[in-house]
């Protein structure tokens, strides 16, 4: 069924395909939900292939194959081949620990052009401790070499928190040695499991300021060799960022069981019902879903967002963060200095740091 969308709603540019929530790591900063979806609820190969065909027809250009750990799926090569067939630029987001050179070669043969590999620290022992997986760091380094052998592009992703932020310079140097053409330096975003560990993960203001300085210096030094994307922690910002480019504007997310979300953590918002790819097409959902239209545009906004000159730049900030801090997803994101709820964020920052993590897995 072909359902034309209102002219004001552009087609999505990117699709985050969460193939599975299964993951061998136990990272305490994981942004996946506290209650993970089970293997027996995952979409089958044919359904994922249909979803990718629908995404390409809808206008999606970039596909992010994610999880959990997407390599836990034995059909990853078949899914990748379909992405290639329909013209989607696929990015594999991986921990690296379940991939070897042989399987990576098979993915390259299926048309995979890009790998995004996470690192937890520059020191092997510290990295394995954060990942909760012995030998993880060594496997990541080996995979980076295998990526280069296939000719694929490599992005390194480093999630920062209090346990590793002081090692940022060493992590940037490691990304250089790994041959990354792009480095994502992203402070932890406190959703899902990470929210449970917020008091143990949150860096202080001086550490955040220092990380900005280090990244700025690295950007100058590595210009033309390695691009660096820096994501500041919202809790230390004065203005919110446009979450996912704005609710229902550029991206959609499909969960392992087929729920289609405007953002990764949207299922945390009570009162929203999310359509599934097993029941409706991506086109029907993108243009007609009540959940996608709930916070789309500016009509839902109250003050101070409604009259703010930045309302079509940050789109009110993060709905899930507003919910987590105020109990109401329709409130102004407290990351904004103009928010009447800014004190909620400041109160969270004032909490004494916790020692030790609640691990994602034992």
Please tally the β strands and state the result: 9
Q: Which parts are unreliable, with pLDDT below 50 for 5 consecutive residues or more? A: 1-7
* Helix-strand makeup class: alpha/beta
The H-and-E topology, N to C, reads as EHEHEHEHHEHEHHHEEEHHHHH
What fraction strand? 5-15%
* Rg computed from alpha carbons, rounded to a whole number of angstroms: 20 Å
Helical segment count: 14
**Gross morphology:** globular
What is the typical, i.e. mean, pLDDT?
A: 94
**How helical, in percent, are the residues?**
25-40%
Largest β-sheet summary: 9 strands, mixed
* Distance between the ends: 46 Å
Strand order of the largest sheet: 7-6-5-4-3-2-1-8-9
Outline the structure in words.
β5 (153-160), α6 and β6 form a beta-alpha-beta unit. The relative contact order is 0.14. A 9-stranded mixed β-sheet has the order 7-6-5-4-3-2-1-8-9, covered by helices on one side. It is an alpha/beta fold and 362 residues long. 35% of the residues lie in helices and 13% in strands.
What's the quick description here?
The chain is α/β, with parallel strands linked by helices and 362 residues long. Helices cover 35% and strands 13% of the residues. The protein has helices at 45-58, 76-85, 101-109, 124-131, 136-150, 168-177, 192-196, 198-201, 205-222, 282-288, 290-294, 311-314, 319-326, 342-350, and strands at residues 14-18, 62-66, 89-94, 114-119, 153-160, 182-187, 227-231, 251-254, 260-261.
């Amino acid at each position: 069924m072909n359902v034309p969308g209102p002219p004001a709603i552009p087609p999505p540019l990117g699709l985050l395909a969460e193939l599975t929530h299964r993951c061998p790591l136990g990272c305490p900063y994981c942004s996946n939900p506290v209650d993970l979806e089970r293997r027996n609820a995952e979409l089958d190969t044919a359904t994922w292939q249909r979803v990718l065909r629908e995404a390409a027809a809808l206008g999606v250009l970039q596909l992010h194959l994610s999880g959990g750990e997407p390599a836990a799926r034995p059909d990853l090569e078949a899914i990748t081949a379909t992405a290639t067939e329909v013209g989607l630029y696929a990015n594999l987001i991986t921990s690296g620990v379940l991939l070897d050179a042989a399987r990576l070669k098979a993915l390259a043969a299926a048309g995979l052009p890009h790998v995004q590999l996470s690192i937890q620290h520059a020191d092997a022992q510290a990295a394995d401790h954060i990942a909760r997986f012995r030998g993880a760091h060594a496997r990541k380094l080996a995979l980076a070499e295998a990526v280069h052998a296939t000719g694929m592009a490599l992005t390194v992703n480093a999630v920062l928190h209090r346990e590793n932020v002081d090692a940022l310079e060493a992590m940037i140097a490691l990304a250089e040695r790994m041959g990354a053409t792009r480095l994502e330096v992203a402070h932890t975003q406190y959703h899902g499991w990470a929210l449970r560990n917020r008091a143990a993960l949150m860096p202080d203001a001086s550490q955040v300021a220092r990380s900005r300085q280090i990244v700025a210096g690295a950007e100058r030094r590595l210009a033309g060799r390695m691009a660096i994307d820096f994501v500041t922690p919202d809790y230390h910002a004065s203005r919110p960022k446009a979450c996912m480019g704005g609710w229902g504007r550029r991206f959609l997310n499909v969960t392992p069981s087929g729920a289609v979300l405007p953002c990764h953590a949207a299922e945390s918002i009570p009162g929203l019902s999310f359509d599934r790819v097993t029941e409706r097409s991506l086109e029907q959902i993108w243009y007609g879903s009540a959940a996608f239209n709930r916070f789309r545009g500016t009509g839902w906004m109250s003050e101070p967002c409604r009259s703010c000159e930045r309302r079509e730049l940050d789109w009110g900030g993060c709905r899930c963060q507003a919910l987590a801090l105020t109990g109401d997803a329709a409130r102004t994101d407290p990351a904004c200095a103009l928010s009447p709820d800014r004190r909620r964020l400041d109160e969270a920052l004032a909490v004494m740091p916790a020692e030790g993590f609640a691990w994602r897995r034992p």
